[in-house]
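Lab notebook: predicted structure, single chain.

Context: the supervisor wants predicted structures on file for every construct in the current expression panel, including those that have not yet been purified. This is the next one on the list. No modifications to the sequence; it matches the entry in the shared construct table.
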Amino acid sequence: MTTKTLLCVAMGDLSSLDTLEGVIQGWDICKTGSLTGAAKLLRARHVSVALLILNSEDRAVPEIDAFLREHGHVQWVAVCQPLVLQHERYRQLVAEHCCDFHTWPVDGQRLRHTLGHAHGLATLHRAPRPVPAVSARLVGRAPATRRLLDQTARVAPVRAPVLIWGESGTGKELVAQAVHEQSPYADGPFVPINCGAIAPGLVQSELFGYEKGAFTGANQSHPGLLESANGGTIFLDEIGDLPLSMQANLLRFLQEKSLMRVGGTRAVPVDARVIAASHVDLEKAVANGSFRQDLYYRLNVLTISVPPLRERKEDLEMLAAHFFERYAAERSPRLQGYSSAAHGAMRQHDWPGNVRELINRIRRALVMAEGRLVQPSDLGLAEASNGSAGCVPLDGVRVRAERQAIEVGLRNGKSVTRVAEELGISRMTLYRLMAKHGIDVPSRSRAK
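Prediction complete. Output recorded below exactly as produced.
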C-alpha cells in the first residue's frame, strides 16, 4: 500500500499536532510551524493534501492568503478554534482556499473521511505536466512545434543573422529569446527593439546613440540600443516598419559591425548577433519598394517560420495548462482547471490572434470564472459543436448526462445523500463527479 504524504502547518503551535497524529492513520506526516517551512516542504516533497491549523486570530491573514493562493494545487483542510471563525477575514480565508474545515475538538473519524476525500479530489485535479521542450520558453508537442524547435536548435549555435517570420501574436520574440539562450552570445544581453514603436524623428538617436552637444538637449553622451547589445543579441521586431532612411544605416552597421553616434566622429565597434522579425512578407515589401533589397538579403541568412496557433492545436491543452500556472496569482482560489467543454471550445476556435489571444482569454477566465472549472463562456467562446452530420461521441453524451442528472437533483433541493441514492452511487462517488464537472453544493442540499 502506497503511503500518502500529509503536510501539517500548525502556524507556530506544533503541540496541537499531538492530538491529530493519534487519529490520522495511513499518512506520512511532515510538520512545520511556519509558512516558510511549509514552502520548503512543498518544494521538497510530493504533497497534494495539507492541514492548516489556526488556533489564534492574530495571524497575518494577507500573508496566509498569498501563500495559499500560490499553492492552490494543494487540497487544504483547515482545523480551527471556534473563536477564530467568528472573524470574517478568517471565515473568508477558509471558504476561499480550503475544501473542508474542522473545529476543535476534532472528530477523528470525520477527519479521516475528509482527508480521504481531499486526496481523491487531488487525484482528479492532477494534470499531466508539460513535456519539457528544447527551450523552457517554447511549449508544445505538435508536429509544427517540433519543426520550430528543430529550426531553433539548428540556427542557435551559428553567429549569422536570423530572420523570423510569423503572424502577429505567434510568439516571435520568444523564439528569438530561445535562439539567444542557446547561442554563443547567451551570456550577453538580449535587447529587443520594436522598430514600429519608435517615433520616426527619434529612430537615429535611439538606435545609434548620440554625443554630447549633437542637438539641443543633448547634455551628455548617450549610447544607443544597438551599442547596449554589445556582446549579446539585438532583436529587431517588426523590421518591416523601419523607415527607408534608416535601413541604409542599419545595413552599414550589419556589414561593418560598427556604428557612428549622432554627432560623433569615430566608429564604435559592436559585436552582437542580429535577429530580425516581421509579420509582413518582406519579399513583397522589396517588390513594392518599401524595404531595401540589399538589407533583406543581409538579414535573410537563416530563417525561422513560426506556425500560427491554428496549425498546432495539439498544443492547446498544454499551453492552457502552462498559462493557468503562469497567471495563478490572478485566479480565484476556488478555480482548479478547465472543463472538458472548455478544451473542446478551444480546439474548435480558429485563434486569429494566436497565442496572444489565448493568453488574454485565459487571463480573463481566471478572474471571471465562478465555478471550480473554467467553462467556454468564461473564455468568451461558444461550446464546441459536434456538427450536423455523423454520430455524437459517446463520451460527450455520457458527460452531459452525468452533469444534467446531478444538477437536476441538487436544483430540486434534495440532499447530497438523497441524490446519491437515486443515482445508485455512493456519496463519495457523487462528490467526485461534482468535482469533475465543477458543480458546487447548494447550501440547502448539504447533507446533515
